[in-house]
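Quick illustration for those who missed Monday's session on complexes.
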Amino acid sequence: MIISERKTDEELIQVVAEFRKLFLVGCAACATACKSGGEEQVFAMQEWLAELGKETTGSVVIDEACHIPRAGRDLRHHKAAVAEADGLLVLACGSGVQSVSSSTDKRVIGGLNSLFLGNIRRFGQYEEKCSLCGECILNETAGICPVTNCSKSLLNGPCGGMEEGKCEADRERDCAWHQIYERLKKQQRSGVFDRNVPPKSWSKQGKPGKHKV
Ligand code: SF4
Ligand code: SF4
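Prediction with iron/sulfur cluster bound:
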């Protein structure tokens, strides 16, 4: 899930300054789960904008704001309210903002900051486990990603700074390579360390990513 959070009041005041009437867009998927862009947050945003003297012409929470045809369809369903607005304020990740901006000629503002692809530990607590590097090596690292979990994204074992299983960059955090080693040992696969992992090909992470099935 894409983890996002609402921009600060100071940031939002700045971005909405030149708009008098806004149409609000939320996302029923990740931004709803993160409580940054669901129905509740769209309603709260409407109230907050009213305090600033801004009018909301209407709102919609798109099933998945990153779904370009759905974003276009939902905006068409609110054609009059969208037309009446000076701009659209989108409470979705950057991907959702761009689905919306590709579906209208109106100015589109993002109200959230997109943080990372996150796993859910429990409600409201998210952890980054994968950086979408395009060349997954989890099969060799006992299912723990060193690209994301090692502070230096090392691929061939721990740096010299690991101490009692803790990372030198942050002593509160476990060293990813210590965890990988311990798990491989339990699986009797420590031999994996005998081979040298070649330098990573970051070309697989080429931007912008495109994929067809
Ligand atoms: S190796 Fe790459 S694709 Fe695999 S979990 Fe780590 S960042 Fe994600
Ligand atoms: S201590 Fe471990 S997690 Fe921290 S940078 Fe070194 S190898 Fe990576």
